[in-house]
Amino acid sequence: MKPVLVLYYSRSGATRQMARLIARGVEEQGVETWLRTIDCAEPQDPVVTQAELEEASALALGSPTRFGGMAAPMKAFWDDTAAQWLAGSLVDKPACVFTSAASLHGGHESTLLTMMVPLLHHGMLVLGLPYTEPALHHTQSGGTPYGPSHWALEKGISADEKTLCLAMGRRLADIAKRMAP
Ligand SMILES: Cc1cc2nc3c(=O)[nH]c(=O)nc-3n(C[C@H](O)[C@H](O)[C@H](O)COP(=O)(O)O)c2cc1C
Predict the structure, then answer these.
(1) Closest residue (by CA) to atom 1 of ligand 1?
(2) Which has more confidence, 153 or 166?
(3) Nearest C-alpha to atom 7 of ligand 1 is from which residue?
(4) Beta carbons of 148 and 8 less than 8 angstroms apart
(5) Beta carbons of 97 and 13 less than 8 angstroms apart
(6) Domains in the chain and their CATH numbers?
(7) pTM
(8) Percentage of the residues of the chain whose pLDDT score is greater than 90
């Protein structure tokens, strides 16, 4: 089985921290990860290649919230995937999304929901988090049924946010294993 691609953009590191937790959740299920970023000023991880995007068994996609949506560099990345869309390279790949935002009501849900849109155009199987995750019921910070989120003005990632990042990674890997040939 091919690795799960954990692909993020991050300027001040919060989304990157979430990416690492989600990757850990994937790996807890015995599935390898490719932890990658997009082409940007100071990449902290390897920059994703087209081949990795096409070959990965699943995708976890993360972006900071910018004015209630994904960051422009991440949008530009997707605007450059017409070839994959034409070829149907991402059809039926499981996927999930995650975000970090500075204010509690400043766009966690709107960013996650709109990040799903290009993935749906690509035919991906977009997963959220089910309410069987207890942390979803009592989180006082980030974490949504549309995917993990982080309230970045809190001190570091909260216990519930961390739990939900790990759970998202495990769920993505579990579904990817079931979908694997
Ligand atoms: C141009 C810009 C727009 C932003 N818009 C929002 C926003 O709409 N809502 C919000 O809660 N935070 C907003 N933020 C804050 C970032 O989402 C937040 O700092 C995030 O944690 C950064 O993630 P990173 O550390 O991975 O770069 C914005 C930041 C910038 C630079």
Answers:
(1) 66
(2) 166
(3) 67
(4) no
(5) no
(6) 4-179 (3.40.50.360)
(7) 0.98
(8) 95
